[in-house]
Amino acid sequence: MKEKLSTEQIARAVHPESINVHVPIEVMWDSDRLAGLKKDILGRLGCLACTSGFDIRWRARRDYIVNPSLEIRELSEFGR
Amino acid sequence: MSRFDLGVGLALMPGLVDEIEAVSDLVDCLEVEPQTFWLETGDPDEPFRLERDELLAVTRRVDSLLAHGVTNPVGGSRPPSAAMIRLFAETVTVLDASLVSEHLSFNESTGWGKAFSSAFFLPPCQSWAGVDAAVASISALRGNLTMPFSVESPVSYLQPRNEELPDGAFMSEVAIRADCGILLDLHNIWTNERNGRQSVADYVAQLPLERVWEVHLAGGLEHRGYWLDAHSGMLHPDLLRVASLVLPQLPAVRAVVYEILPEFVVQNGRNVMRADLESLHRLVDKCGMRRTSATSTRDAVPPTRVARSSAASTADLDPSVWEQTLAHLAIGRTECAEDGGGNATMTREMNADPGLALIRELVAAGRSGRVSSSLPLTIELLISLFGIDEVDQLLATYAAQTFPGLWGSQEGRGFAQWARSEFRDEPLIQAALSLDTAALDYLQNGQTQSVTIDFDPIDLMAKIKTHEAPNTTQGVYCVTVGP
Q1: In this prediction, does ipTM exceed 0.85?
Q2: B192, B196, B367, B413: least surrounded by Cβ within 10 Å?
Q3: Domain spans of chain B?
Q4: Using a CB-CB distance cutoff of 8 angstroms, which residues of chain B are in contact with residue A74?
């Protein structure tokens, strides 16, 4: 009888030397607010409420990176 | 049902649930935005599912609930899909909503042989054919709902056109012909006035006021010479003055609802929300007792309606052409697709309207917000590798080459697909994309996901956080992502 292999089983077969790691979603997405994760997911993956206004999420992130506490923080220095 | 019987409400979305407690003494009703409690399923027949537990937790908060749709606008010629209509009906039924509403805007059109979303509410075609299209869309979404159904006055950043029906007259004709209510968003029409469209006074004068069952108020902000419907908190004193003049004229208004986005509550603080809600209570207390003489006059004498035959030039505006042209331009295309049916003259005129650049900026901001929220590891890594300005440019390039996704998960997958090709020789970026999309899959279908990547995921995630990603430990790692 043929049995369908899971993606994980296939990966192990192809890479027997692979190291198995389980990552909980809360850890992966760095939700410091673990208690609010479910609502956070709705906000991340669902539909934003106001779709005739200004989605400031990217802009706020950008502003924070450039100036988290009135100090200029050059992230490019971490890059290439 | 009586005037102001639903009192002062708060527009609720998942990100505001934790904020309700702090203002519960000021919130008589909650207005739930159904689609903010939906997630994609990946099933083409039933593409979305309701996060029922999350929604039910909300219903226990207050006695009165309203439902306000935010993705199936009814101001265009393309009615919502049957699956969307079904889930909308299911959600408002779970809520047992006292009032149900959607926007008199559009957010979908066609081109390149397929339908696409603008992922942003665009102003409707204000012609007689546009009225007919909106009436048909309202009928489709309303379906068999037994609750009172209203359409919301839209915001438009475009300049008024001679051949259009005036804003108030268009709303009036739609509401009367569809036999539905009006959700009068005073911030929207005040925004329109500030940006060069019809005045609030003229708009209100054209409405059948007995059909205004709900009012929205919100804060906005100035941006590039325009007033934005940003839902950013801090009700403007001038808007409150306008509201104090309009509310007494509304004989059948049941609720005044305050809108603020969670991001602005975080940014501006909870005190802003509390102060605004207190302002609305004072307003309702004052206006609830006072009805102007204009109201009683208007009860007896309805506003003069625009005669269909007297505005022959509006017949030239075809809603499908309007929608195709504007939707293409809004998402950043310079012209309509050949099969899009857009009109060259209209394309030229819209391109000349300075409001179009603002709309494009807002559409792009929405796309960037959705990508950065739904692919957090990837975006953080890209910022680490290239710097914020270059990631800005990457997002712009992605947007120019692809269609928007209205949902965070759609836009995230769209960017992931684009970035896989763009960075095919960058194993670190490929690894981050694999982890993020595995997370998306898990969150959508609840099944633990497995991916194989060339880097230690724990080390990778830690270094992304501290912006040290290039030195991540290598190897073959079979990663499962789940609870």
Answers
A1: no
A2: B196
A3: 7-300, 309-356, 375-481
A4: 387
